[in-house]
Amino acid sequence: MPETAPLPLDPRAIRLNASADGRDDAIRQCGEALLAVGAVEEAYIDTMIERERSISTYVGEGVAIPHGTLAAKEAVRHDAISVVRFPDGVDWDGDRVTVCIGIAARGNGHVALLAQLAEILMEPDQAQALREATEVAEVVRLLQSNINEEDESQ
Asked: In three state form, how does the secondary structure of 38-51 look?
């Protein structure tokens, strides 16, 4: 089985003390973090919000994983994720989100990224550690070490 590539996580796309006026504002902040590291063009952010209006990206454990529509693939420059933590939480259509992980991927790359994130977030202790992380290095370690441990066990 091929090794899993590390998540494309630029530490500059991690923001741990954000606040948002609501779901769409939280998604916009995730998209802006992707924009800041050159992963997407600005138009991609609107498609992240558009996708959310058609299907929720809330995945449980206080985490949402917004990403753009298929039509927005051309606005993606390179695969990347952003992590924006909202310590006070954000109302996400009745659920409380404290961690928003934005995804940008060319082609079908988002499927692999979602699968990798799901593996991490299905572990309640990992999800809790991510929700409570206060240091950028801690987020990188939580997300990258899980992937590397899987590689070593295969």
From this structure: CCECCHHHHHHHHH
Query: Residues of the chain whose pLDDT is less than 50?
Result: 1-5, 147-154
CA–CA gap between residue 116 and residue 108 (Å, rounded): 14
Please write the tens of the pLDDT for every residue from 41-76. 999 999 999 999 999 999 888 999 999 988 888 999
67 is catalytic: yes
Give just the sign of the alpha carbon dihedral 65, 70, 72, 74: positive
How high is the pLDDT of residue 109? Answer: 64
Structure tokens at 47: 């498609």
Q: How many CB atoms lie within 10 A of CB 65?
A: 20
Alpha-carbon dihedral sign for residues 69, 70, 76, 81: positive
Q: How many CB atoms lie within 10 A of CB 111?
A: 10
Q: Give me the catalytic one of 23, 67, 85, 110.
A: 67
- Report the distance separating Cα 54 and Cα 32, nearest Å: 21
